[in-house]
Each structure stands twice: as structure tokens, then as C-alpha cells.
Amino acid sequence: MSFLGRLALVAGRALSTGQVQVQSQVLPAASTFAASWLKNSYHSSASSWLSAPATTAGAVTTADEKNAHLVDKDIWDEAWAYEPRFGTADNPIQVPALLGERIIGVTDPEDDTLVIWGVIREGEPPKQLVAGGEFFVLKKVERVEKVGDKLGIPLMPQVE
After folding, report:
1. pLDDT tens series, the chain, 160 aa
2. What domains appear along the chain, each with residue ranges and CATH number?
3. What angle do helix axes 3-15 and 19-39 make, rounded to 10 degrees?
4. What b/e string do you get for 80-106 counting C-beta neighbours within 10 Å, with b at 16 or more?
5. Cβ distance 136 to 120 under 8 Å?
6. Which of 85, 67, 66 is nearest to 136 (CA)?
7. Contacts of 74 (CB under 8 A, 6+ apart)
8. CB–CB of 86/109 below 8 Å?
9. What one-character DSSP code corresponds to residue 145?
10. At 53, which helix (H) or strand (E)?
């Protein structure tokens, strides 16, 4: 006997004095109720959560796809540090500064774990901190751009 049949029998016994008559009346009602309850239960609706919503290909852009170009960059770092060229005496890397001098550091060419620090000042000729290394010159600016600025990403929400 099925689950629904047993449910109807139990319900019929609890309600009846004439078991045969009540079973014939209760069984269809109990079957309908049980089928309806099982169909609309939490468990049956869970199966609809397992499948992704129907969308057209390329309609939804995930956060990973949107920000893939930032994987190797820290948007808070300063843009000048990512110059794609080597600074020479004739064409040095311009280091922006809000003040007239700035401390910069470069890695030691013989030991990448060491940082050589130096100060560059406004008006000085291009400066090389390590032999065979890049040349730097200070450029005074009103605002120091970050990598996020160069990529068109607002780092701070604009307040109106």
C-alpha cells in the first residue's frame, strides 16, 4: 500500500465509527491533500534552485570578468611605479610629489630582498640610486594619481 493510502487509513480510523464508509470518503480527500502538500512543499521547490536562471549568452557579466584587468595591479599603488619603460638620464621616470622632496626606494640589483632608499628633490638633475639602475626626477603636482585613476576606476565615491 502506498504512503497516501496509509495516510488515508490512519485518518479514516481516527474519524470513523463505520470504518468502510469513512475510508471511501476520506481516501480521495486525503490523497488529494497529500499530493497537493507534497507538490507545493519546500522540498519540491528546492529543485528549482539547483538550476541557473535562463539567460542569453553574455547577458550577465560576473565580477571576475569585469575586474580581470586588475589581477596583477594594486589599484591603490601609485601609477608612476608601473612605468613600462626604463628611466634613463635623458628620459628619467617622473616621480610625482605634493611637496618639494620625496623618499623613493629601489631594489638592489644584486639582492632583491634589499631596498636602497634615497631622496629626490625638486629642481635637481635626474638621480640614480644604484649603479646601472633607473634615473628619477621629481615632478611637483597638485594630485598624485593612483593606478585606479589611470584605469578609470573611481577609488572614492563622488559626493555632490
Report:
1. 666 566 555 555 554 444 445 455 555 666 666 556 555 555 545 455 555 555 566 667 776 676 666 666 655 566 667 677 888 999 999 888 888 899 999 989 889 899 999 999 999 999 999 998 999 999 888 876 666 665 555 555 555 5
2. 3-50 (no CATH), 79-144 (2.60.11.10)
3. 130
4. beeeeeebeeeebbebbbeeeebebeb
5. yes
6. 85
7. 147
8. no
9. P
10. none
Structure-derived torsion over alpha carbons of residues 111, 115, 116, 122, reported in degrees to the nearest 10:
140
The pTM (predicted TM-score) of the whole model is: 0.45
- How far is 151 from 36, CA to CA, in rounded Å? 56
Whole-angstrom CA distances from 42 to 29, 39, 45, 47 are 22, 9, 5, 9
